[in-house]
Amino acid sequence: MTLSQNAQGITSGDTLRGHCHLTPRRYTLAHPFPTGTHAMWLNYWLAAHEIDPLADVETITVPPPQMVTSMRQCKMDGACVGEPWNALSIAEGVGFTAANSQDVWPDHPEKALGTTLEFVERHPNTARALIMAVLEASRYCDAERNRAKIAEVIAYPAYVGAPLGTIAARLMGEYDNGIGRRWRCPFHAFPP
User: Fold this and answer.
1) What is the C-alpha separation between 98 and 137, in angstroms, rounded?
2) Residue 100 Cα distances to 10, 66, 74, angstroms
3) Quick one: which of 14, 171, 183 has its CA closest to 90?
4) Partners of 169 in the β-ladder
5) Angstrom distance (rounded) from CA 89 to CA 93
6) Domain segments of the chain as ranges
7) What distance lies between CA 145 and its chain's CA centroid?
8) Parallel/antiparallel/unpaired status of strands 8-13 and 182-184
9) What number does CATH give the domain 8-109+147-181?
């Protein structure tokens, strides 16, 4: 069961803002997990721009909540990470979004719920209840009228702990790449 789509981004730190003035060196880019989708988006995007992701850049693993601070401290030159960390890097003036994952693969699946056949066979009622609960929560999240409340909850320190504004804008599909382009993501066009 797909739980989410899109909402990942490749954010470049300010060291890459004026690419015509770059000094020749090996750049460091981060993702949250070496075999996760963020690494896949980053590697695919780099290769599409004729940059060998295994030879031309160094990739490191950084937990998402530490991405913005690591860019600010010049520990890395950019990252592929989920929201709201891309929006936060823009809000704090340390980066800009070079691409969104939906630019790489439009309307891609991101998070999923899966179980083993053994689990379903041993716990059929639990499996059914789990799917029904996730469907109910998904319907709630899909309704645009609930997005402000969802953003509030996600912003709590016990959850994501990022500023409400950076969460709410991207959750509503309002994008700003930090270098002059603003748009409403067509993949976030929700019914009224």
Assistant:
1) 32
2) 6, 19, 22
3) 14
4) none
5) 6
6) 8-109+147-181, 117-142
7) 22
8) unpaired
9) 3.40.190.10
Which residue, among 133, 163, 142, has the nearest Cα to 65 in the 3D structure?
163
Amino acid at 190: F
The CA-to-CA distance between both ends of the chain, in Å, stands at 24
The C-alpha atoms of residue 133 and residue 142 are separated, in whole angstroms, by 14
What is the pTM for the complete model shown? Answer: 0.85
pLDDT confidence tier of residue 162, bands split at 50, 70 and 90: very high
| Alpha-carbon span 4 to 2, nearest angstrom | 6
Per-residue pLDDT of 100-148, as tens digits, reads 888 888 888 888 899 999 999 999 999 999 999 999 999 998 888 999 9
Residues 55, 110, 173: CA angle, nearest 5 degrees: 105
Cβ–Cβ under 8 Å, residues 33 and 61? yes
- Amino acid of residue 151: A
Task: Judge contact between 89 and 67, C-beta under 8 A.
Answer: yes
Q: Which amino acid is at 97?
A: T
